[in-house]
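FIELD: query
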Amino acid sequence: MTQEPLPARLPVTDRTRHRRLREQGSLERAELAAILDAAFVCHLGVLVEGRPVVVPTVYGRGERWLYLHGSVASRSLAGDTPVCVTVTHVDGLVLARSVFEHGVNYRSAMIHGTARKVTDPEEKLEGLRRLTEHSAPGQWSYARRPSRKELAATTLLALSLEEASVKIRTGAPDDGDSPDAALGLWAGVLPLSTVWGTPEPDPALPAGTAVPDHVARRAGTRHG
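FIELD: result
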């Protein structure tokens, strides 16, 4: 059965309400999608045996679900448990005239919910395809697909994108019209960006093995 698309505005819940720096908050689901699409590593926060654990892992985005994967032996991927997933981009350091006003230009998303373990074979394969294509577009068609044994050794979690919080900070320091402006100190933003480098071949490759086009095209392009 076809599910209704998620609403364009994010719901405000007790977990997603912006209590501080509300001007940096966004309720636009398009902003959430843009933040998730620009990255491929998230941090999964979950309680394991009563203790908090935060695990960095790759992910893939669908229209309604965020897919995360790992080994079946991973205790953090048990499924059917409340989790919090965060994704953050650092776009620059905000260097003000006073240390108190220093900050960071950033884009961040925090997703709350109960992650479910994907057991349907078709959804599991589709989730792994999305995860692969999210980090390396074109690789799913290029590389060998997972075998039954590999699928059995892999846990895939799906987390609904329904409940999420988005915050974005851009621009210059906030003390340009404060008394500190008279100090004569430099203030501004030190931008930060990440660029994909030149592909480095596996030493075990036979001589003359060409870099596939979908990999070569990313060299020199910006990530994030």
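FIELD: remark
The first strand starts at residue 25 and ends at 26.
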